[in-house]
């Protein structure tokens, strides 16, 4: 089937908001015209894409399939438009990288900075996502390069070694653990935790450790960044488990202590992932090679 981009954008908006009228509003299309575009899509697909009901619409199986491809097509067209604009402005290419929070906090800024100094006419779009979402973005063609935690399933992707890091425990200076130098898993799990949002590799590894130990994970608070974990730990709200390199700068400005974590999962590896190396643009391949260089 063939479909114009405006109809695909409308379909994605309808799927995202569960309503044809809301999708029409988001795309600045009259409701009658939007309904006709959706009907035309279904006629060309020769399958129902939506189930209409009193509260809005839901996707059929065919609709879910179209949504996946529509997002990839629209993303590719948006990137094409952005790259053409950049060429007009003298920028010779855009490379999109989607990475987990740990690698953004520890490794990527310095590497991307050094790459851009060598290639000033290139542009890099860096986005933070949980490792599982990074995989989905690369699989769908929404990112050229992904950076994920090593234990993340990455079916269909080519993965290359990237960096390793070490998890540690951060506590407030007046916490009962503050005079300790190291701590084991069982004792860590006995305390209240400040954790980064659900779905991140850090959150998953703590849940897995708690499950293996047969105890609940005591989550006192969920926050959106490593810096916020450290700030709430300083206030005595709980302890945090973070990459050591992410804790280190905070020790200089906040009233915190860092403990070595004695756990088999404290040492982690991170991977670079792409769909196919040979399918990358010259610019993306150059970035991938630069990221793969040793420290």
UniProtKB/TrEMBL annotation:
Q: Does the keyword Transcription apply?
A: yes
One GO MF annotation is: DNA binding
Query: What CDD domains is this protein classified in?
Result: PBP2_LTTR_like_1
Sorted alphabetically, which keywords does the UniProt record give?
DNA-binding, Transcription, Transcription regulation
Q: Which domain of life is it from?
A: Bacteria
- Gene Ontology cellular-component annotations: cytosol
Supply the Gene3D superfamilies for this chain: 3.40.190.290, Winged helix-like DNA-binding domain superfamily/Winged helix DNA-binding domain
Question: Which Pfam families does the protein's record reference?
Answer: HTH_1, LysR_substrate
Domain HTH lysR-type residue range list: 1-60
Tell me the InterPro entries matching this sequence: HTH-type_LysR_regulators, LysR_HTH_N, LysR_subst-bd, WH-like_DNA-bd_sf, WH_DNA-bd_sf
Family the entry assigns: Belongs to the LysR transcriptional regulatory family.
Protein name, please? DNA-binding transcriptional LysR family regulator
Source organism per UniProt: Variovorax guangxiensis
């Amino acid at each position: 089937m063939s479909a114009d981009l405006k109809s695909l954008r409308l379909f994605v908006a309808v799927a995202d908001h569960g309503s044809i009228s809301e999708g029409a509003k988001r795309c600045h299309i009259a409701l009658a015209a939007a309904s006709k575009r959706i009907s035309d899509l279904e006629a060309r697909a020769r399958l129902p894409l939506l189930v209409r009901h009193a509260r809005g619409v839901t996707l059929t199986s065919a609709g879910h399939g179209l949504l996946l491809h529509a997002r990839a097509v629209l993303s590719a067209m948006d990137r094409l438009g952005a790259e053409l604009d950049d060429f007009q402005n003298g920028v010779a290419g855009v490379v999109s990288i989607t990475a987990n929070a740990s690698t953004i906090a520890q490794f990527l800024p310095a590497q991307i900075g050094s790459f851009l100094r060598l290639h000033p006419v290139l542009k890099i779009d860096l986005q933070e996502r949980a490792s599982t979402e990074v995989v989905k973005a690369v699989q769908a063609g929404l990112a050229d390069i992904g950076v994920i935690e090593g234990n993340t399933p990455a079916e269909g992707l080519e993965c290359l070694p990237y960096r390793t890091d070490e998890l540690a425990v951060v506590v407030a200076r007046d916490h009962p653990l503050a005079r300790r130098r190291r701590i084991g898993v069982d004792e860590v799990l006995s305390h209240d935790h400040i954790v980064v949002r659900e779905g991140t590799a850090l959150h998953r590894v703590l849940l897995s450790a708690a499950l293996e130990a047969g105890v609940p994970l005591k989550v006192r608070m969920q926050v959106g960044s490593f810096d916020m974990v450290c700030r709430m730990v300083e206030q005595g709200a709980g302890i945090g488990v973070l990459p050591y390199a992410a804790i280190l700068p905070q020790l200089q400005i906040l009233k915190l202590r860092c403990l070595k974590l004695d756990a088999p999962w404290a040492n982690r590896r991170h991977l670079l992932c792409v769909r196919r190396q040979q399918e990358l643009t010259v610019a993306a391949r150059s970035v991938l090679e630069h990221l793969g260089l040793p420290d």
